[in-house]
């Protein structure tokens, strides 16, 4: 739908999401895949939140941040996948202007917040492994709350800047977004306005929101791995290295895909490649997080078994 716009331009009231436009057959299979990913992510993260809240032994900074991450991942995947499922089911991939704006705002908020939360979790592990004698001084309840609040605040501020800059642009030539959800890069590619300010903002803010937490997290894990390798107990060292390697896999997957998406010039955009990268940080990473960070953890699995047994036999039978 279009409305008259001044200076012989056209203002669109809705966008068309064409991420699956080239797929003529197999949309039913894609619907099942996305539904399975959403269900796994939602149930897995919800279960972790429940376990952390109900088990007193998990009331520590590590699991406080895991609970925050699980809540964020539920929000994260809920921003994109329900709309994707609707588009695949109805084969009418349109989204209103306001709906697209809201999707961009919450998506960018959650991307920024997750980056800082992952850095906070790396800092927590650094003090726990490398500075155990001072751990309680640096990672107490008050500091953890402030770090979580700072992460969410930075995410919201980051999204406010980019969303305002993106939707001040004119979209007068096309309303066809070559992606399966609204995101900043594909919107900039169809704008008929000068996007240089947007690109500068993505690059400069991206250094603070993306690159800085990423390098901080990597440096933290370098110190952690060094401390683990210095441990004389080889069995515990191998186990800790395996855990850190899993964490680093998720960190690199998330940071790599999100930095690649936002911290680069418009001229380097590739629609097919960007769709794949978008799926990595917006769908796959939230689904993997509970498996990597929590479900492989013995304390979490023990707490889950206790919770399930208690709920199964409420009378203690």
CATH class: Mainly Alpha
Largest sheet, spatial ordering of strands: 4-3-5
Amount of helix: over 70%
Q: Please, what is the CATH homologous superfamily?
A: Rhodopsin 7-helix transmembrane proteins
The number of E-state strands comes to: 5
Put simply, the count of helices is 10
Terminal CA distance: 63 Å
Strand percentage lies at 5-15%
- Our Rg estimate from Cα atoms comes to 22 Å
Query: What general form does the structure show?
Result: globular
Q: Uncertain runs with pLDDT below 50, 5 residues or more?
A: 1-10, 313-317
Coarse structural class: mainly alpha
Order of helices and strands: EEEHHEHHHEHHHHH
CATH architecture: Up-down Bundle
Instruction: Kindly report the CATH topology.
Output: Rhopdopsin 7-helix transmembrane proteins
Mean pLDDT level = 80
Textual characterization of the structure:
The chain has a single domain, classed as Rhodopsin 7-helix transmembrane proteins (Rhopdopsin 7-helix transmembrane proteins, Up-down Bundle), CATH 1.20.1070.10. It contains ten helices and five strands. The strands form two sheets. The protein has a three-stranded mixed β-sheet. It has a two-stranded antiparallel sheet with strand order 1-2. A hairpin with a 3-residue loop joins β1 and β2. α2 packs across α9. The longest helix is centred in the middle third of the chain and has 34 residues. The protein is globular, with a radius of gyration of 22 Å.
